[in-house]
Amino acid sequence: xxxxxxxxxxxxxxxxxxxxxxxxxxxxxxxxxxxxxxxxxxxxxxxxxxxxxxxxxxxxxxxxxxxxxxxxxxxxxxxxxxxxxxxxxxxxxxxxxxxxxxxxxxxxxxxxxxxxxxxxxxxxxxxxxxxxxxxxxxxxxxxxxxxxxxxxxxxxxxxxxxxxxxxxxxxxxxxxxxxxxxxxxxxxxxxxxxxxxxxxxxxxxxxxxxxxxxxxxxxxxxxxxxxxxxxxxxxxxxxxxxxxxxxxxxxxxxxxxxxxxxxxxxxxxxxxxxxxxxxxxxxx
Length: 284
What we know:
Blueprint: E1 2-8, E2 11-16, H1 27-34, E3 45-50, E4 57-62, H2 73-85, E5 94-98, E6 101-107, E7 113-120, E8 140-144, E9 147-155, E10 159-164, H3 171-182, E11 192-200, E12 203-210, E13 214-216, H4 220-232, E14 239-244, E15 247-253, E16 258-264, E17 266-272
Parallel strand pairs: 2-3, 4-5, 10-11, 12-14
Antiparallel strand pairs: 1-2, 1-17, 3-4, 5-6, 6-7, 7-16, 8-9, 9-10, 11-12, 12-13, 14-15, 15-16
């Protein structure tokens, strides 16, 4: 099984072509591949390209726990770079079908900066989903382990919970509360979590706890969701720089909250997975 490994601001994905997989990837196989000690080490797997009836390419995205990720901004930029590296695309816009809806990618001439039109951000509770009456989930409160947070929820085809803070977030805060919020009964399909601090009208800062992946250094869909929430609450402009531990992404929104993100992708290596890797059971 051949793979290519890339990162977007420290958010690592492995690209595997479907033809390289002898049988459908089982949950345990995905967990082994992504494991940092018993596998290749990754924040997810990009399985593609697939044929698509509606887009130029199809893509399946998996979290390290084996679950599906409907959409990933960093994953999509990495997939776009892989398509360029494998000679399938140039620098004209092209479309990719994901479980979270279609996106459009454009690769800048240097090949390392990639723009992704992520689709529309919505705050509708039924679309996200969030339990309770139908509503826009904005500036609500939740209590997590005795601490009260103000949060808003959003979807780009995948669910997000944006927790607004009055001070810059820390890695420790994400680790302390991220998993509890991810698995909160409020979110029937679990949720990605962003701990958000608004620096000024053009800059926001987030720490990220990703559904099915835990703590991550950067996330494109999280950056888009956090920007949309902050803008919807009137706290920032429609074009901002999102600061994360792994680096920065530029995010812009139009008047209907369609988001576009721009950022770098770095190739790490190509390789081949030895079949015996799957013979060693992961520790419980």
